[in-house]
Design goal:
single chain, mainly alpha, Arc Repressor Mutant, subunit A, MethylDNA_cys_MeTrfase_DNA-bd, MGMT family protein, ATL_DNA_repair, DNA damage
Length: about 100
């Protein structure tokens, strides 16, 4: 992936406010050419020591993707006050922007 595109993705993710989430697709739509899949790839390959709020990026279904870090992601979001419904989804009013 182009470094300029990665920079766009990381810049957008850095802007997601605490207690809010965004989707891979919404972030992709704010870039110049990323896809939801490429945003997911960028989140999986964050550089060591990064401070990006990767945990605030979720799937379009508003549920956490099934991945190795899902439990940690859930924990981090709950610590920020994000509530989940009985099916594990984030309420739509918490989606940014």
């Amino acid at each position: 992936m182009r470094s300029a595109l990665l920079e766009q993705i990381y810049t957008i993710v850095a802007q997601i406010p605490e207690g809010r989430v965004s989707t891979y697709g919404r972030i992709a739509a704010m870039t110049e050419g990323a896809t939801a899949r490429s945003v997911g790839s960028a989140m999986r390959h964050l550089p060591e020591g990064h401070e990006l709020p990767w945990h605030r990026v979720i799937s379009a279904s508003l549920a956490l993707a099934d991945h190795e870090g899902a439990a940690r992601q859930h924990e981090k979001l709950r610590a920020e006050g994000v509530a989940f419904d009985a099916k594990g989804r984030v309420p739509a009013h918490l989606v940014w922007p």
